[in-house]
Amino acid sequence: MTQAPSQQRRRLVDLAPLRVPAFGRLWVGGAIAGIGAQMTIVAVGLQIFDMTHSTLAVGLVGGIALLPMIIAGLWGGVLADAFDRRTVLIVSSIVAWLGTLSLLGLSLADTLTRGTDAAVPLWPFYLATTIATVAATISGATRAAVIPRILPADLISRAAALNGISIGVQLTLGPALAGVLVATLGFPVTFAVDAVLFTAGFLGIVMLPRLPAEKSATRAGLRSLLDGIDFLRQAPNIRSSFIVDIVAMTFGRPFALLPAVAALAVGGGAVTVGVLTAAAALGTFLTSLFSGPVAHVHRYGVAIARSIMVYGGCVAVLGLVVGAMQTGWFGTVGADFGAVNVPALVLAALAMAGMGASDEVSAIFRSTMMLTATPDAMQGRLQGIFTVVVTGGPRIGDLYVGILATAVGLWFPPLLGGVLIIALIALIMRAQPSFRNYDARNPQP
Predict the structure, then answer these.
(1) Higher pLDDT, residue 334 or 425
(2) Architecture of domain 226-445
(3) H-assigned helices in 207-299
(4) What is the CA radius of gyration of the chain?
(5) What backbone torsions phi and psi does residue 297 show, to the nearest 5 degrees?
(6) What are the residue ranges spanned by the domains of the chain?
(7) C-alpha dihedral over 393, 399, 402, 408, to 10 degrees?
(8) Does residue 11 contact residue 293 with C-beta atoms inside 8 Å?
(9) pLDDT tens digits, residue range 32-55?
(10) CA-to-CA distance for 225 and 217, rounded, in angstroms?
(11) Which residues are 329's β-sheet partners?
């Protein structure tokens, strides 16, 4: 009778990392500031579309920032290893905040001058967004490298699970609040709210202890970056964790298909896109919420591989649902409720939720492996390289689904991608015995 409540608590996320003051302040502040950052991401797209009525113009926000973001990720990792990480976080956060304030000023100017000869051009919005994105990328790589400095090793996997909750909250609340604020109070107020929420994240950073570079740290420069790449070449387990993530993101990113799926297969338009996107976020959130058992898992390589295989299976199920709708095996759009096929929507949402859940399991163990197996002197550079991986993989995935969906059909990229993910992960596990046998009790890069 007395053990049941304890066992029940262990099924839920472990809050022990939050009892470490430095991490607790950083986590709470980051979650609040992250909501504001997601608001700005949505608001920028809406503002540019309002100015141009061009989807291409909106798409250029990410396209223009991609290369600077990749460079910033690599260089930010170098800075995090060469200087005091608290200082790097403070400076990069202030620059990101200035980018948001610039967007606020530009939005106010656009509101006041719209339709006049003094109307605000588009390029300052791209410039301000790119500056904010670059600074946020440096801050993100450095923030991750801070974790092993402020937490004992046995709490890092639990901290990774808590970060999943934070990301889920940010991705859920941020876009929703942006939509409400833009519709009711306008763009300037939305950017202003982000600027205010930034304060919480900044306080969490300022209150960190000093985190100076190790005495053996190399000077910031190309040599330092190349040293990080050389280390990765000699770290088969961390390298394999990067490779399996690239496989999953290249062949299992159906988000670019969702507007077409909603219009041509399941029905429901923007509402369906919102439901499917929210389902993935809900899967991530629930997995993090019930992440208590992660502290008792030690075979990280096996856990990562199995979760990515489940991810591939969910991707394939989504392809089957879309294929069934397009071939008429599952009824037709609008057969059950208005313009939506409800059973198809439910199955697709379950597949997306499964993707979010399994991806979060993989993310918890991959991030913990990198944080515990990488020497502290290399943490920043490895986090920077990882930023390139998580930035580039999804964009390759968008290209993959776009080409195959156009050439064959909407159902083909997720169905083929799911099968490829399962097969390739199985091959990687056979080819990398050290990754397959990885034991967190003896972390080896």
Answers:
(1) 425
(2) Up-down Bundle (1.20)
(3) 222-233, 236-251, 258-264, 269-289
(4) 22
(5) -95, 130
(6) 1-220, 226-445
(7) -100
(8) yes
(9) 999 998 888 888 888 888 888 776
(10) 12
(11) 331
Alpha helix segments (H runs only) across 185-221: 187-206
Across 79-101, average pLDDT: 92
Encoding tokens for residue 145? 């490298």
Nearest to 280 by CA among 359, 206, 180, 210: 359
CATH topology classification for 1-220: Growth Hormone; Chain: A; (1.20.1250)
CA 340 to chain centre: 29
Better pLDDT: 125 or 61: 125
3-state helix, strand, coil in the chain (%, to 5): 80, 0, 15
**pTM given for the model:** 0.78
Residues in the chain, total? 445
**332: alpha, beta or left, given left = phi > 0 and alpha = psi -120 to 50?**
beta
Which tens digits make up the pLDDT trace of 297-356?
889 999 999 999 999 999 999 999 988 887 766 555 544 444 778 888 899 999 999 999
Model confidence at 96, pLDDT cuts 50, 70, 90, reads very high
| Separation between Cα atoms, residue 76 and residue 388, nearest integer Å | 11
Residue 149 is which amino acid?
A: R
DSSP H helical ranges for 151-186: 156-184
Distance CA 238, CA 89 (A): 25
- Assign 337 to helix, strand or coil: strand
237-264 b/e (C-beta count within 10 Å ≥ 16 → b): bbbbbbbbbbbbbbbbbbbbbbebbbbe
Q: Do domains 1-220 and 226-445 have the same CATH topology?
A: yes
The reported pLDDT for the residue numbered 291 is 79
Which whole-number Å values give the CA distances from 363 to 367, 369, 371, in the listed order? 6, 10, 12
Return the SS3 of 327. Answer: helix
Angle between helices 300-327 and 236-251 in degrees, nearest 10: 10
Distance from C-alpha of 277 to C-alpha of 248, rounded to nearest angstrom: 17
CA neighbours within 13 Å on the CB side: how many for 306? 9
Written as one letter, the residue type at 57 is: A
